[in-house]
Structure formats: structure tokens, C-alpha cells
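Notes from hallway chat w/ T.B., transcribed later so I don't forget. T.B. wanted the structure written out for a chain they're using in a teaching module, and asked if we could keep both sequence and C-alpha cells in one place. Agreed to drop them here.
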Amino acid sequence: MSVLLADILAARRTIAGVAVRTPLVPSPHMSAVAGSEFLLKLETTQPIGAFKLRGALNAVAAVPAGAAGVTCCSTGNHGRGVAWAARARGLRAVVCMSALVPQAKVDGIRALGAEVRIVGRSQDDALAESRRLAREEGLVEIPPFDDPLVIAGQGTIGLEIAEQAAELGAALDAVLVCCGGGGLVSGTALALSEKLPGVPVYSVEPAGFDDTARSLASGSRIANDMSNRSICDALLAEKPGEITFELNRRLLKAGLVVSDAEAQIGMAHAFRYLKLVAEPGGAVALAAAVTGKIDMKGKTVAVVCSGGNVDQAAFLEALTQAGEV
């Protein structure tokens, strides 16, 4: 099942007025340090603190009237987006999560009125429960990334980047996007391929969960070893989605990989230069930029900061490790 620019344009109309047109801001201090002109797309300013609201709103809007409710599996931000969108429609929402999800994200979802079910210690366990609820209780499943409506919703970020770069008079040389299952980067790359053809788009993943980078290199989907660990809890998908990978292998320049320590450097840079709180997974694209994963000297780079839902202890640990505290 393909996703087209028309689907992204339709998604923008659907989510308008709830998901915000987030800022694309220059960072002169950070640019001076790195020798590149950075434009940061601040999805941290969405009402739920992450980009996931876009895809969730678009998918939940398509749920038929009279449905019993919605369900999803989530590592945190997708569940928060689904909870927000379901509450707006007066729908029951059940979010299935593993025991590895940070408590702050669980609490954020419950605060929006959704039921949270903690199932097992892997995303597979949570997914199995979500699918059981869909099968046995008639809830509509809202996938976290491998779904045309979700991808189209996330793709509205690409529309905004193209428009806002033009408003700033900036000619982009590259765009770096955080990547878990690939919904954000595939939708963003699709929009940019139509609006800014020829501008390379890179996915960025944490080490040990670099399934998209490895899959792009091999030409087929490769799964992660789920016994691996990373602080980037928002990006711990088992493998690329079928739809997202088909888009990404056609649209992406390459996949980049950062370590947990580098993700913490990205968080520290966001705090130091922008006074911005970014969660580890939300900072990996910025980390790739500031640690020189590709040569961007003298070029203009748009970087998606995808989320800021991090608990205080993890944030302070990141700043401490990066020398900010």
C-alpha cells in the first residue's frame, strides 16, 4: 500500500488546528561551533511534546463512528498521541506497553484518560496484546509507524520544513531525521522529494537499533537484536516497517548511527544553545549533526528534534555525562 503526496496534503487538512506548525529555528551559536548552518525543527513544541501527535490524529480521524475505541502498542510518544486524539473524539483508548517504557511516559498517557496495559518486556509483547484487543474487543488498532495514515500525518513535517526554509531564505543541503520504525523519516522524505527534489534526507538511529541503516545497506529488511539496550527508548523498533522501508529505500540518501553517549551530547547541545529539553531518541538527529557523522561544513542542514518527553533523572544524567552539570 503506497503513500502519496496527496495523502500528506490531506493529512495536513485533517490535523490542522490541533497539531501545530512547529518552528524551524536557526541556532547561530550551535552553527558557529559546528561550522554548519543548523535549522532545527522543534517537534518538542507539539501539545504532547513529540511529533507522534500528527500521525495519531490523522489515523484516529478515520476511525468509523460507533467504533468501540482504539488501541495501539507504544514505547511512549505514539501512545500519548493516540490518547490525545481519542480523547478529542470521545473514544476509549487502550495503550499497550512493555515494562521497559519509562514511567514518565506511562504517566503522561494515563493523564490523557487512556488505559495503559503493561505487557511483558518487549514491543512484541505489547503488540500482541494490542492485536488481541482489536480481534476480541473490536477496538481499532492504530499502528505506531507502518500505516499509510500515520505516515501521511508524519509527512506534514516535510511540507513545513520546505515551506519554512523558503520563508527563511535558506537553501537546504541536507535533512536529518530521527528514526525508529521509519514512519517519521519516510513521510518527511516523501514530502521533501516533491517539494525540494534533490535534497538528501538521512535517517538517524541509535547504535544497536540501526535496523534501517543496515536494511538500506543490504537492500532488505533486517531486524535488531532485541536483547540490545539503548537510552533512546522512543526508537527501539524491532525492524523497519514494510511500507516505511519501501519508501525509505527509494527516498533516503543513507542511514546514520549514533551512540548513546552521542545522543546525550545532542541533548546537551539542545539545552546549552536553545534552552530546549530533548529526550534521547528525539536528539539523535541533532547528535549526528554536531558529532560530524556526515561532512556538512559550510552547508545548511535541517534537523528534526522529534520529542522532549524525558524524565528528570535521565535528562540530568545526559547533561552530566556531556559535561553540562
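Follow-up for T.B.: The mean pLDDT is 95. Might be a good example for the class.
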